[in-house]
Amino acid sequence: MAIKTPYVAVDGIVQLFDEKDNFQGIVLIERKNPPLGLAIPGGFVDIGETVEDAVKREMKEEISLDVEIVRILGVYSDPKRDPRFHTVSVVFICKAYGMPKASSDAKEVKIFKLEEIPFDKLVFDHEKILKDFINR
Amino acid sequence: MAIKTPYVAVDGIVQLFDEKDNFQGIVLIERKNPPLGLAIPGGFVDIGETVEDAVKREMKEEISLDVEIVRILGVYSDPKRDPRFHTVSVVFICKAYGMPKASSDAKEVKIFKLEEIPFDKLVFDHEKILKDFINR
């Protein structure tokens, strides 16, 4: 049986809080690999791991934070959302404390207040995802 | 770049209504192919289609109904949920009118009131999914 389906990825909208539980902003990355630009951190799901484990692993790898999952925002699957190939992304709303640090596919991490997100710099369909998040 | 991710599937919890909008029950199928047993209708997502289009196509193919999507119930991705291989399923709550008819992978369709679902006959993790649906 030859089954061909899109790739599965996860992305994490990480809401960063300080130790007094004050919202600091959300964490975005400057991508190191094409497509270059600003992005929600995320990556592919490995065979053998759950989507929840995948998003926690990717947040640890890319922005060096241990995140808590709040809930799923949505599943984004437009065949054209990734210019490279068809990728279905499960997008999680997460919560984290501490200071993010760039690694893996992230060249730099940036923290944005919701009203300061530079939507025109976002890659993939991340502008739509973040607007869905803000208007949820 | 060799990317390997789990397969992506969709399943539809189809709430069936009569023409007066009275809830009739949810539609389950008796599977024609292994694993045999009772299941929520569903199938793999094709490359090039959205998960929303996939669940509408699968409901049409398996139970001959045009469904309306209500919302996503959840994403089920336990590596052991499918005994054949790792499949991530996006589960949609749907709504439909009319009479379901079995085709494709469905040997028979059955309509169950929520309190009459025979949970012990369900394959995959569909018992858990339907309990999550009932307790949502």
Topology:
The structure is a homodimer of 136-residue chains.
Chain A lengths: L6 E11 L5 E9 L6 E2 L2 E3 L6 H13 L4 E9 L10 E11 L8 E7 L13 H9 L2
Parallel strand pairs in A: 1-6
Antiparallel strand pairs in A: 1-2, 1-4, 2-3, 2-7, 5-6
Please summarize what this structure is.
2 copies of one chain form a homodimer. By secondary structure, chain A is of the alpha+beta class.
Description:
The structure is a homodimer of 136-residue chains. Chain A has 136 residues and is an alpha+beta fold. The first copy, chain A, has one domain: Alpha-Beta Complex (Nucleoside Triphosphate Pyrophosphohydrolase), CATH 3.90.79.10. Chain A is 16% helix and 38% strand. At the A-B interface, strand 1 and strand 5 of A face strand 1 and strand 5 of B.
Features:
homodimer, 136 residues, alpha+beta, Nucleoside Triphosphate Pyrophosphohydrolase, seven-stranded mixed beta sheet, 2 helices, 7 strands
